[in-house]
Design goal:
Structural class: alpha/beta
Number of strands: 6
Distance between the termini: 38 Å
Low-confidence stretches: 19-25
Length: 126
């Protein structure tokens, strides 16, 4: 192999290892969850998918689109699995923005913001 090919292989290896480290570091996170307002229903998300307030979906700042995340409400122990389709939330301490359907499953509609535990559980096929 020539030097140029070795550099390409090394770069790919570094990118692979770095992306795995980032994903593993984000596998479990605690923070605050919020949920989308109903006015977002029908709008395009950062992934290009149309937001459906009745779907089990969410926004996360850095996880790849399609990542499945188990979100557990730390106040009541209820959990739901959602799929990342958008970017956000951007408020301090907020780690995930949920669809209203997911927020209802977590019993957080009245509170609006709740402490949550996030765990990456997989990647969806969609």
């Amino acid at each position: 192999m020539n030097e140029k090919m070795m550099r390409k292989i090394l770069l790919l290896l570094v990118l692979f290892v770095t992306s795995n480290l980032v994903m593993n570091a984000q596998r479990v996170v605690d923070g605050q969850a919020t949920y989308y307002g109903s006015r977002s229903h029908g709008r395009k998300t950062a992934s290009g998918e149309t937001f459906n307030k009745n779907a089990m979906v969410c926004a996360h700042r850095t996880l790849p689109f399609g990542t499945q995340v188990r979100v557990t409400n730390k106040k009541n122990g209820k959990s739901v699995v959602v799929r990342v389709i958008d970017r956000g939330p951007f408020g301090k301490g907020k780690v995930i923005d949920l669809s209203p359907a997911a927020a209802r499953q977590l019993d957080m509609i009245r509170a609006g913001v709740v402490p949550v535990h996030l765990e990456v559980v997989g990647k969806s096929r969609k």
